[in-house]
Design goal:
The structure is a single chain. By secondary structure, the chain is of the alpha/beta class. The chain is built from five helices and seven strands. Helix 1 crosses helix 2 and helix 1 crosses helix 5. The protein is globular. Bound molecules: adenosine-5'-diphosphate and magnesium ion (MG). Magnesium ion binds next to helix 2.
Length: about 170
């Protein structure tokens, strides 16, 4: 399943993320793809807002993994930018969605292109700048697996009920 939403500016991207955040259940895996500056961290900041995380979310480019435990669900924010695919395995990221050593929450992975193996159940999110003259992004969502397909259906419903589709903006 695929859904495309349009965001005129960073605020609109965060509003979309905030709406998604309210639909998330423990164990959600969000794979963020796209170039540097496309809006992945900006999107995760909106997720944080929607999960009611008061701490400011920053880019984990240097820390690799930031954990936020103060919201509706734990948020595990991961950035693979500085890693090679071959190094990612040793991070044991699956611990974050196994639900044994860490409480199940929301896993948001930037530069998910670097994951060495493909997952069975996830929501992929790709913010795509539409032109260098504007801040507009097309945000492409695609789901794999039952749980995340249901999640994406709910997001599509929420978008429709807000009048965001087709090709319209929140806010
Ligand atoms: P990434 O994590 O993908 O490298 P960031 O989210 O850190 O990208 O940076 C995106 C930059 O683009 C931010 O400075 C943000 O304010 C700006 N921006 C402008 N318009 C948008 C938009 N529609 N969506 C997301 N970010 C936007
Ligand atoms: Mg980033």
């Amino acid at each position: 399943m695929q859904v495309e939403l349009y965001a005129v500016n960073a605020e609109a991207t965060q509003t979309i993320a905030e709406v998604l955040a309210q639909l998330l259940e423990p164990g959600a895996i969000l794979l963020l793809k796209g170039n540097l500056g496309s809006g992945k961290t900006t999107f995760v900041q909106g997720l944080g807002r929607g999960l009611n995380i008061k701490a400011g979310i920053t880019s984990p480019t240097f820390t690799l993994i930031d954990e936020y435990h103060c919201g509706r669900l734990p948020l595990y924010h991961i950035d693979l930018y500085r890693l090679e695919s071959s190094q990612v395995g040793s991070l044991h990221l699956q611990e974050y969605w196994r639900g044994a050593d860490f409480p199940l929450g929301v896993v948001a992975i930037e530069w998910a292109e670097r994951l060495p193996t493909s997952l069975q159940d996830y929501l992929q999110i790709e913010p795509i700048p539409l032109s260098i003259d504007t801040d507009e992004r097309k945000i492409k969502f695609s789901a794999r697996g039952e749980a995340h397909t249901k999640l994406l259906e709910k997001l599509a419903d929420a978008a429709t009920s807000r009048g965001w589709q087709p090709r319209s903006q929140p806010g």
